[in-house]
Amino acid sequence: KVDYDVCSNYGNWLYSAGIGNDPRDNRKFNMIKQGLDYDGNGDYVRLWVPELQGIKGADIHSPWALSSAALSQAGVTLGETYPQPVVTAPEWSRHISHRPGGSPHPRGRRGPAQAPAQHKDRGIDFYFSRKKDV
Q: Is 37 annotated to bind ligand?
């Protein structure tokens, strides 16, 4: 079931984009952790993102971290059939698996992640900070 409360949804989208109202300083919404906590097997994502239906289990929450062989087997080509990530926050790394097979860890605790090459030196703070001369 998908809810439709315009005000609540708008606020949640702003919050997840990092520009919502939050009294805590330096707070980031961790979409990968949320996916693992509330859709551990990826069934909801698989329902609404048919391009990723071939990815099994929790790996669906971070397809860019899968090996090229796993992506090929799932019928996914990053940058063609599914987009590359725009940015990956360094804080998400413990929730992303980089092991062959990508078996999930309890509560989403996983190995280190690598940011996409074009953003490797820029954390998500770069995009939301006032200082842009980095």
A: no
